[in-house]
Description:
With about 250 residues, the protein is an alpha/beta fold. It folds into two domains: about 1-60; about 60-95 and about 145-235, no CATH class. Helix content is about 45%, strand content about 15%. The termini are far apart.
Amino acid sequence: xxxxxxxxxxxxxxxxxxxxxxxxxxxxxxxxxxxxxxxxxxxxxxxxxxxxxxxxxxxxxxxxxxxxxxxxxxxxxxxxxxxxxxxxxxxxxxxxxxxxxxxxxxxxxxxxxxxxxxxxxxxxxxxxxxxxxxxxxxxxxxxxxxxxxxxxxxxxxxxxxxxxxxxxxxxxxxxxxxxxxxxxxxxxxxxxxxxxxxxxxxxxxxxxxxxxxxxxxxxxxxxxxxxxxxxxxxxxxxxxxxxxxxxxxx
Length: 250
């Protein structure tokens, strides 16, 4: 009975979330056309509403840990579900994301993502995607702020290992900025796919920056070690048992 009730609440939550996306997007559209600040305001309003409704409808509370960066830095984050995107955007001052190109065509979401300066890339053409990403950043096509990249390139469910891609290291080197790793456990409560939401405490944690200037190999080792180990700790803290094949359980 409890599971059935939670499933119903999850369905209600998902429906109202997308309805609120449409309402907020339409309401802020004139402001967003005039200024990117309008698009940022719309995204923040949506993020605040989703965080609030997740708590009261499906029992997902959230917490931000660590020192939130305010300066222009590269952020390399663990990506488990849509909820970590919401938490990152709601927390950072001027965030923008490296996103897959297909999202440009998603109603409302695509327009607002481009308006706030997100960088679309085609993941099927790796070399061209990285070149396009660097060109957009260097040309000033994207504004200053915190550029967020997901080093694994996609959402990865809890307990599943996926190698880190070199694109984050190339961007780190080209930008010449510090990189702030981010760990999370949100996938335990808000899955990569599906409707059901599990009550619990979702955590997003900003960790100590990796100073600019590291060699590519060293940088890749550091971000994978830091992000994976801390994400695993956050998941253990929430009661998740890591599979034997995970990096913490060789």
